[in-house]
Every structure is written in structure tokens, then in C-alpha cells.
Design brief:
The chain is about 45% helix and about 20% strand. The protein is of the alpha+beta class.
């Protein structure tokens, strides 16, 4: 899935950038905000999407502001209906791989706080209707979960807006996906996705045996599925970095010999921003892996203190406890 606040789609360079992202990452659905177009046709969508069969829907801009475009691969997703309201474009359909109903929401939330709050209520009602379906909201929420994300004003309305947005996310079990891009801050452009994917995967594992064994095997399978999901959605970070470095070297070579044209110079800045973001993400993952390794293995001091505490509490020996449920961070309780 690709979500992109393009801030005007008229320029050829912007259409080309979207098309390259779609083709390079084999995107199944693309959600564009701020198209600033009052009319959208198949010709424009073809320039954005590239080769292959696709379907599309759009919400027209109001003057030179707003505008939403959703495009999808018809070999993966078949649309049955679409509709729009203030700040959103909703597409309903069937995910062909498993025949399950699917709802995609492309969002560019209003600037007025009270209108956003009304939109959160609308989306909550829609999420409740789609609780058994695949459901995703992608785009620009124009809202933040933490005051440190705000660039600009501060005030009481800000605090209430943050509280409302947090309540909306928590009430609907939504997961906020990591941002990508050199100027990214706040929530979006890759937006929350319904959290019931984990639960459906967990419940699909048919494992026989005693409770601790079932729990261990389910965790192993879930870990493998999460790795596959991450690889299919985020791609291979090392491959991304290598590809960006190669492109940067090519642009530098052109700059050394002929000099860069305006579009090439802009592309070089974009590549450098993406490369920086990928390195930062990779460093964050390495730090997280180091923390996990330390938590599991510890060092000489931490291992000694942990054993001492266990012995003091009378837990120095292994126990054989049975359990039947697991509470995960989304607040759901899963049956083992």
C-alpha cells in the first residue's frame, strides 16, 4: 500500500515519482491526498499508476485545495462501491486472494478541529460496521498523538485535539504505521491499519497439545508471519539502501560531468532524504535488537542480580504452570 500527500499532481515530475514508487515496490493500492484536481480521468490515473489493469475513484478538490485519488490493482482487489464525505474517500470491495470483504479509507482530514472530531465519529462508526472485514485508513490525519510532533502553535485546543485523536485510535484498535520520508512528522502518511490481523492469525493456528506447548508454537508461527508481513509491506531495508546508494552515485556522476538539471537536482534531494530515513530506521531496529538481546541474555551483573532476586522470592527452580489466555498490547485476550 502506498499513501502520498502530493500537494498538487499537475507536474510531470510528481506523476513520474508516484509511478516509480508503484512499479518499484509492486504496490497493490495507491492513495493520494491533495491532488488539487477538480476532475480526474483514466488518463491521469494511468500516468500515476503505469502498466497493468487498475481501478480508480476520486474526490474532487474544492477550488485549488484538497482532492483525493485512490487507485488499485484489479488483479488483487475488485471494487463494489465507493463514496465520499468531508475529508474522506471510501472504497469497498473484495480482496481476491481470500474473497474477504475489504474497505479502504483515503483521508485528508479538515483543518478545523471540530470537523476533525466529527470525522473521527464517522470513521469509528464505519470501523464498527467493518469489524469482520479487512479495514485500513490511510492518508493525512492532520492530527498528532504527542505535543512534540506539532510544528507551530500550542494551546488548550491542541491538548483536546490530541486527546480526541488518541481516543479515536484506541477505541478502534488501530495501529499507527511508521512514517517514511525526510520531512515526515506526526501521524501518516502511512496510516493506521486494523489490529485484528494479529488476532485472526493467532486463531487460525490449529495446534494440539498442552497449553504451554500450544503457546510456544503459536508464538513461533506468529513471529514468522509478522516477518513475512513486514518484508511484503516495508521491503528489504538493505536492498532499499543499496538501490538508493546506486541511484545517488549515478546522479553524482552526472553532476560531475554535465551538471544536474532542475528535476535531477530535486530527485537527488529526494533520494538523499529517503536514504537518511532508511539508515535511521535501520539504526533504530539494531538498537531494538540489542535491547532484546540484552533482556534475554543480560550481562554478568544483571544475570547475577536476576538470579539473586529469583532465589530470594523462592522462584529459583523451574515451574510447570498451565495457562489458557494471553493478553496482548492491543488490549485483546486471545485463547491459547
Amino acid at each position: 500500500m502506498l499513501s502520498y500527500n502530493i500537494r498538487g499532481v499537475r507536474r510531470k515530475a510528481k506523476k513520474k515519482e508516484i509511478r516509480e514508487l508503484v512499479n518499484n515496490w509492486k504496490v497493490d493500492a495507491c492513495f493520494i491526498q491533495e491532488s488539487k484536481l477538480e476532475k480526474v480521468d483514466g488518463k491521469i490515473c494511468r500516468r500515476l499508476w503505469g502498466k497493468g489493469n487498475f481501478g480508480w475513484a476520486f474526490k474532487q478538490a474544492e477550488g485549488r485545495a484538497g482532492g483525493l485519488i485512490s487507485i488499485w490493482n484489479e488483479e488483487k482487489f475488485i471494487s463494489t462501491s465507493s463514496w465520499d464525505a468531508l475529508g474522506i474517500l471510501v472504497v469497498n470491495g473484495i480482496w481476491k486472494e481470500d474473497g474477504k470483504r475489504c474497505t479502504f479509507v483515503n483521508i485528508h482530514a479538515p483543518n478545523i478541529a471540530r470537523q476533525r472530531w466529527a470525522l473521527w465519529d464517522t470513521l469509528s462508526a464505519l470501523a464498527d460496521q467493518c469489524k469482520d472485514d479487512y479495514f485500513a485508513i490511510m492518508g493525512d490525519f492532520n492530527a498528532i498523538k504527542d505535543p512534540r510532533e506539532r510544528v507551530g502553535r500550542r494551546g488548550q485546543e491542541d491538548k483536546r485535539d490530541i486527546e480526541k485523536f488518541r481516543e479515536f485510535i484506541e477505541a478502534n484498535d488501530l495501529i499507527d504505521i511508521r512514517l517514511s520520508g525526510k520531512n515526515s512528522h506526526g501521524t501518516g502518511p502511512m496510516a493506521p491499519v486494523k489490529a485484528n490481523w494479529t488476532e485472526s492469525k493467532w486463531n487460525s493456528y490449529d495446534i494440539r497439545g498442552w497449553a504451554s506447548y500450544r503457546f510456544k508454537e503459536k508464538l513461533k508461527r506468529l513471529k514468522g508471519d509478522i516477518k513475512l508481513w513486514k518484508l511484503s509491506h516495508a521491503g528489504n531495508p538493505n536492498a532499499k539502501i543499496s538501490q538508493l546508494q546506486d541511484e545517488l552515485e549515478q546522479l553524482d556522476a552526472i553532476d560531475d560531468t554535465l551538471g544536474l538539471e532542475k528535476e535531477e537536482a530535486e530527485r537527488r534531494q529526494t533520494v538523499m532524504g529517503k536514504l537518511t530515513a532508511e539508515w535511521q530506521h535501520k539504526e533504530a531496529e539494531l538498537c531494538q535488537m540489542a535491547k532484546i538481546k540484552w533482556a534475554k541474555q543480560g550481562d554478568v551483573n544483571s544475570r547475577f542480580r536476576s538470579l539473586k532476586r529469583l532465589k530470594t522470592a523462592g522462584l529459583g527452580q523451574e515451574t510447570n504452570r498451565e495457562f489458557s489466555t494471553l493478553r496482548i498490547v492491543t488490549g485483546r485476550t486471545l485463547q491459547i
